[in-house]
Amino acid sequence: MNFYTTILGSGAALPTVARHCSGQMVNVNGFRILLDCGENTQTQINIYRQRLQSFTHICITHLHGDHFFGLPGLVSSMHLCGRKTPLDIYAPAGIAHAMTTLMEVSGSHIDFDIRYHELTHTEGCILQFENDLCRIHAFPLIHSVPTYGYLIEEKPRGKNPVRRYAYCTDTAYTETILPYIQGVNLLCLESTFNNAFAPIAAEKLHCTTSQAATLALKAEAKQLLLTHISARYKEPELLLAEATAIFPNTLLAADGTQFEVHY
Ligand SMILES: [Zn+2]
Ligand SMILES: [Zn+2]
Questions:
Q1: Suppose 253 and one of 32, 176, 227, 232 were both cysteines; which one would form an S-S bond, judging by CB atoms 3.0 to 4.6 Å apart?
Q2: How is residue 210 annotated by DSSP?
Q3: Number of C-alpha atoms within 13 angstroms, CB side, residue 5?
Q4: Strand-pair category, 148-154 with 164-168
């Protein structure tokens, strides 16, 4: 059974040629979920051959621009390409107001239903969606605006144990999330900065490489995937080296790469 994520954007706030703003397409046995929608995500969807109309669920972590400024353009293109299928969008409170305002002032007409599911809980890992193939849960992270991590869990099929994928960005180091991500098969965590920038990471409520690796270790994750890499790193192998010193089974996201959620 397939369970993998395609990286559409692995950069932090400032997009570069090499790394676009946050976006991932998760495929759980054919069911696709878009995680975050930074600027240019729709172009990345085309470049990396993820069909525009192939997904019905979008999960936005928070309303910083590098995670949702691509959404109005994406929705508009879906309409122009003739979409009739409803779209479910999960995001912190404010998303419906932001989107409807943009659509109104731009005179955009969207000819399909958009159902906004606004997240407001301040603790717990709460089920948001469930179908025959998977469950999607959301849990709060620690950042400068309300922010949620997502836990995607496949449904049991035959004798196979279920695999789980956790997506956590943006967040300061916090052990409050450990119960939600305990033992996940693949843990995608932001690591905007390397260790030398620890004071800036703390001030801006982001993680360093070592903090991400420490969380993976404490959560007993099977594998760690680093993302949300600052544009300052021209040689991101430095980040990988710092993380693997603490948690050896660490991978580094790059735009266009795919990572399987292994058993
Ligand atoms: Zn960000
Ligand atoms: Zn942010």
A1: 227
A2: H
A3: 33
A4: antiparallel
Distance 71 CA to ligand 1 centre (A): 15
Q: In what order do the strands lie in the sheet with 250-252?
A: 126-130, 134-140, 148-154, 164-168, 186-190, 224-227, 250-252
Q: How far is the CA of 62 from the centre of ligand 1 (A)?
A: 8
Which one is catalytic: 66, 88, 170, 255? 66
For residue 36, what are the domain limits?
3-260
Report the sign of the C-alpha dihedral through residues 98, 101, 105, 110, in that order: positive
Report pLDDT digits (tens) over 50-79: 999 999 999 999 999 999 999 999 999 999
One-letter amino acid for residue 9 of the chain = G
**Is 66 labeled as catalytic in the residue annotation?**
yes
- Does the global pTM surpass 0.90? yes
How far, in Å, from the CA of 7 to the mean position of ligand 2? 18
SS3 216: helix
